[in-house]
Amino acid sequence: MRKKNKKQVLENIPVTGYAAEGRALARLDGKVIFISGAVPGDVADILLTKNKKDWAEGRALQIKEFSAERVEPFCKHFGTCGGCKWQMLPYQKQLEYKQQEVEQNLRRIGKTELPGILPIVGGDDSIHYRNKLEFTFSNKRYLLPGEMESGVIIQENALGFHVPRIFDKVIDIETCYLMDDVNNRIRNTIRSFALENNFTFYDIRQHTGWLRNIIIRLCTTGELMLNICLNYDAEEDREKLFDHLLKQVPEITTLLYTINPKWNDSIYDLTPQVYSGKGYAIEKLENYLFKISAKSFFQTNTRQAEKLYRIARDFAGLTGNEIVYDLYCGTGSIGIFVSGLAKKVIGVEVIEEAIEDAKENAALNNIHHAEFFTGDVIKICNDEFFATHGRPDVIITDPPRAGMHEKLVNKLLEIAAPTIVYVSCNTATQARDIALLNEKYSVEKIQPVDMFPHTHHIECVVLLKLK
Questions:
Q1: Phi, psi of 209 (to 5 degrees)
Q2: Among 71, 119, 144, 29, which Cα is nearest to 447's?
Q3: How many angstroms separate the CA atoms of 180 and 218, rounded?
Q4: Among candidates 334, 297, 298, which has minimal Cα distance to 316?
Q5: What does each C-alpha distance from 2 to 9, 28, 47, 53, 169 come to in angstroms?
Q6: What H or E segment, with its residue span, contains residue 378?
Q7: CA 360 → CA 229, 293, 355, 370, distances in Å?
């Protein structure tokens, strides 16, 4: 090992293992180095970004020897685009590392007695698995190294993904493998027509330009919803673009547009307008139908969501006599999915629009024994509420990545339902919460699920039983 100047570059470092969240690791002179951009088996030059006494962080500056585990990435945008960062690993190896991360997090952070962790449930499709994609327009296309060296710039506008850690530049995406090829035809048709007609692309620094974002929803039912976000309305150009698009991509069942004059891209407080179709799409999980509007939340991998929800339903051990509380219920998808085996379902969620969607989805499926409430679980679930709706026999909780607030964990300990099914997209915060629940609960089953192939993200379902 030697250091180059003040850049703290470590040369020819063997990468020996996988750490967590997509990073690899090396050990050098008793110090652990967490590395991005490398895989176990690589030998790399590492640029340190943090350097502490016992550990360091860095990124692979140059791969000197490639791991035998590597495979050829399938996407031409690999290495530039921030998505699908694990394309250079075989899918089975990705699953192996994800399984390892679940075990490490739950044992190291949870510090509770655990059963054997079940083998991770992989996806049947490692490409074309997403039902939602969002692409951004920009008048500042990210230039590739070859272009910058040559000085020849063919096109400045772009429609694609933001460059990681660079807020004002966008990678012009030609082909994205996350969704069926129809996403490429939509994006490339819009870009080509916009360039031909001199439509302006958004400038995030100046807040100028017309075209801002497109949001695509492709359901397993075949319904295809597209929402095009514009900085301001230009009716003649809008109709010209939309009519051309509908002719070129007839698979689009619903086309909406949203006028967004704000400086940020969020549309939660805006009203999408219907240009063509019914204004929403219908998705299906088993035999349950779900209405997805332009602002609805829904799991972005439908096939794996079915597997995830089946595991949660199985862990719940429902016999038809149980009252199920679905916390962080969102648009009611888990509660509705388990409702066929439950006596009653009570869903609680702080986002009012999501609860309205949940009620609509329950009605769509003729489910009359599910009720949904807007508010904070800590405040809602009191003795008066239980007297009216019954105490839970099973609690299903599916919090965001930050996990459950400690006050909610304490509330669950106070409620003391016989069964808790904890669905998580972050096993580190899940392990933290399990450690707190250990006061009254024991862990009975653990099932990791891979929802997002070629990324480091993992879902995990844990069954807890009252001691």
A1: 95, 155
A2: 119
A3: 8
A4: 334
A5: 8, 12, 12, 17, 36
A6: helix 377-380
A7: 26, 11, 9, 11
381/367 Cα distance (integer angstroms):
22
Amino acid at 17: G
Q: Contact at 8 Å (CB) between 55 and 158?
A: no
As given in the structure block, the two tokens for residue 133 are 């994609």
Q: Which amino acid is at 178?
A: L
Helix and strand element counts for the chain (H, E): 11, 22
Determine the 3-state secondary structure of 48 from DSSP.
Answer: strand
Q: How far apart are CA 157 and CA 137, in angstroms?
A: 8
How many CB atoms lie under 10 A from the CB of residue 84?
21
Q: Give the pair of three-digit tokens for residue 388.
A: 């009216």
- Enclosing H/E stretch for 182: helix 182-196
pLDDT digits (tens, 9 = 90+) for 416-427: 999 999 999 999
Question: Do 9 and 1 contact (CB within 8 A), yes or no?
Answer: no
Say how far apart CA 399 and CA 409 lie, in whole Å. 11
- 47 against 20, higher pLDDT: 47
Distance of alpha carbon 431 from alpha carbon 20, whole angstroms? 14
Calculate ∠ Cα 185-186-189, nearest 5°. Answer: 75
CA distance linking residue 84 with residue 78, whole number of Å: 7
The CB density around residue 377, as the number of other CB atoms within 10 Å, is: 23
Concatenating the DSSP letter of every residue in 83-115 gives: S-TTTTS-HHHHHHHHHHHHHHHHHHTT-S---
- d(C-alpha 107, C-alpha 4), whole Å: 38
Contact of 360 with 406, CB cutoff 8 Å:
no
The one-letter amino acid at 410:
N
Which of 274, 288, 287, 279 has the alpha carbon at shortest distance from 363?
288
3-state secondary structure of 319: coil
- Residues 187-226 have pLDDT tens digits of 999 999 999 999 999 999 999 999 999 999 999 999 999 9
pTM of this prediction? 0.91
Containing 413, the helix (H) or strand (E) segment is: helix 406-415
Determine the pLDDT at residue 54: 87
Q: Which residues are catalytic?
A: 425
The 10s digit of each residue's pLDDT in 21-74 is: 888 999 988 889 999 888 999 999 999 999 888 899 998 989 999 999 999 999
The Cα 394–Cα 342 span in angstroms is 10
CB-based contacts of 210: which residues, under 8 Å, 6+ apart? 199, 200, 201, 202, 230, 231, 232, 234, 237
Report, in angstroms and rounded to the nearest whole number, the Rg of the chain calculated over CA atoms: 24
Check: CB of residue 127 under 8 Å from CB of residue 183.
no
Neighbours of 279 (CB within 10 A): 16
